[in-house]
Amino acid sequence: DNWKPFVNRSSPKSYKRSESSLKTQLSNLSYMYVFLEDMEYSSSNPAAVAMRRLTSAIKIDLRPDRSEVGHKGMSSLQVSYLVRTLEHISKSDPEKYERSRFLFYLMIFCYPRISEVSARPGYSPVFGDFEMHRGLNNEIYYTFFMPSSKGGKTRKVICAPLVIDALIRYRMFRGLGKGFPLPGDDTPLFVRHKPGTHGRDKNLVDANLGISQ
Q: Phi, psi at residue 97, to the nearest 5°?
């Protein structure tokens, strides 16, 4: 009687399943029925059948009310304050904040996930991930390459001119030249201010930041 896994404790409203949580619950149940079939205790898998019968009508019923969905966006006023503050502190203490300035422009205008701009097993962002392209009418545009993102998908996002300006300024600060990075440039994108204290990057400064940092 005390086991109540489907209770919304953070709101007076009753618990309501989302489509993703329902799929997870049915998937877990399906694994249990696979085991029961292996033990010759059951000859069917009703959870798998239910997953196949998730019709569009059921999905619409599961769709959350828009009024319940929050947002994490910043207002134009908040962004303007951040830009002004970063410009000020990056000039007064560039060794500490020039990296923060470029990271802000990249996160705000290219909208990557944190894992797409930090080191993780099998991937570490480098300057060569920025690419220059020539489109119709010889128009030049730039992209930022993000391999094996969420769901194993790879994508390239268009970079606004503000991002490219910030990139070139950041490269000049790092002593990497005055222009756009060359293809194949494997210089780490965001390097540490202090050496690593453990792991394979111990005592290294020229190594990409991890997700937590």
A: -115, -5
